[in-house]
Amino acid sequence: MDAQPTAPLPGPPRPAAPRPGAPRSTEFGPLRIGWDDRVLEPRPWTTAQAEWGAALLTAGPRGDVLELCAGAGQIGLLTALGAGRALVMVDADPVACAWARTNAAARGGDGRVEVRCSPLEEALTPRERFALVQADPPWVPSDLTGQHPRDPLRAIDGGPAGLDVAVVCLQVAAGALLPGGSVLLQLGTEAQVDALGPDAARLGLALQEVRTFPRGVVAHYRPAAVPGASGA
């Protein structure tokens, strides 16, 4: 008699989803930022990104600050605090938005900070314009995310080249800048900035400067000059 087919053995049990850890807090410049392990831990080096943004605002147009992929909100909050501007923070993750609201309230709750929990492309009205856009997208290439086991995957996975969300950030920023405004985009490497060159040009953004920090880079963009436009 033929042997009966053997039923496949069950695979290993699927690991349980991690439980959120206890709330933590981190000093970020003069701010104390709350977070937990469901969102990306604030990186101390990104205080420099916030300070750069505040400096750009002193010489830029009058207007508010927009932060895209805000996470717990530390970069946008420190930028706005340093420049005395109102702030709109956008993130698609409800947990990040909750922490951003908590941190905004801890800053003083003066009503000049708004958190929008939304996909980036749907967060703004067509007529909204900002003097500065801070963009902090996930920029780790997908096949390298395993090197960062302590970080939430959603907060670091930027797609095959690490640029999927960065391109969306530039698209949103390009349509939301006041004349003379600036975009500061955080990425992992200068090579990623170079790879974004065609997208930035297509969107009418000109690269002004790239600053390198111990764990990432920040690129500064402004609207490109229109050929034939008069400065008069």
UniProtKB/TrEMBL annotation:
Biased composition (Pro residues): 7-21
Source taxonomy: Bacteria, Bacillati, Actinomycetota, Actinomycetes, Propionibacteriales
InterPro entries for this protein: N5-glutamine_MTase, SAM-dependent_MTases_sf, Small_mtfrase_dom
Organism from which the protein derives: Nocardioides nanhaiensis
Region (Disordered): 1-31
Methyltransferase small domain boundaries: 60-139
Protein name per UniProt: Methyltransferase small domain-containing protein
Domain of life: Bacteria
